[in-house]
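Protocol step 4 of 5: obtain the predicted structure for the target chain.
Materials: sequence only (see below). No template structures provided, no constraints applied. The aim of this step is simply to have a reference model before the mutagenesis design in step 5. Sequence pasted as it appears in the construct record:
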Amino acid sequence: MEKPRKIYQLHDLFEEADKIDTELLWDAYSKDNIEFEYTPKNPENKKIAVVYFSSNGLYWRGKTNFQTRVIEQNRYEWKKNKLKNADLHIFVRDVWCRYYFYGINNQVDSIVKLAELIKEKTQGYAKVIMIGSSAGGYAATLIGSLNQADYVLSFSGQFDVEAFDKYCYEANGQAYKEDKYMLKGQELSERKQYLQIADYVKNADVPIYYFVGNYNQADVHDCQIAMSLPNVRVFRFNNKKHGMPIDKRCLTDLINMNKNDLEQIHALFRGRVVSWNEFGFRVSGLKYVFAVLRNWAKSLEVIFRNLRNKLEKL
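Step 4 output (structure tokens):
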């Protein structure tokens, strides 16, 4: 994509937003915004590749945060939670925070081109797995379907981007503002066809493991779509959390499960709304229990310390 005469950023849609310098934003978009990490583990004919998609929470709104997270820290999500048995890790990010509508850079400037690049880079791998949360889950699900991935892990990923965005505006008491696009004509229409992805997911028949907070109203519509698709395995949790509805203390163990284990745990929880603790115990076993107990012990320690300090001041 050539540099547009008018650069629109996410902040243009919000009142009193702390806007990012457009030249800095375009410069960041002109970088690769993809990283490769090779960790050989398996024989040549059994190699595993994993693609991790950053979400729209890559940085919070504000130029200072963008400068810190993207420019200085060069942040990609998921680097602390990786598949231990993978031979190739691919991290991607969307600096526009627009559901990869403009791809990842000014060369790979659409989600289709990103899918093609990932397919090229994972050629010859026996298994290709896609992971992401929210907008990253949306991208993982769509590209995983387009590329016939082995399976996808999506945490609160969208199936209908426009409906999700519209709800978020209304929930925040704002009138819905249709996005201002930096493209026109055929280029725009080609990209807009991927704002609703249910048909692509259904036709691909790739297993999608979808984790969602059952009481998050922004996710209700996407959850309904997910439950209507035969190849989407839905895990509903009894909370309102968007993005990561599971307890992060069991996240590493969850993403390191193989497909058979994921199928078994889905069969166990199918049709139910599950608690954090029950799910965490099923995924991580006693390790999870000990982590919870350590947390409780630390909380009690803080309570007693504060109580002691108050008593000492009497």
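Step 4 remarks: Strands lie at 34-38, 48-53, 88-92, 127-133, 151-155, 208-213, 232-237, 273-274. Residues 10-283 form a domain with the Rossmann fold fold (CATH 3.40.50.1820).
Proceed to step 5.
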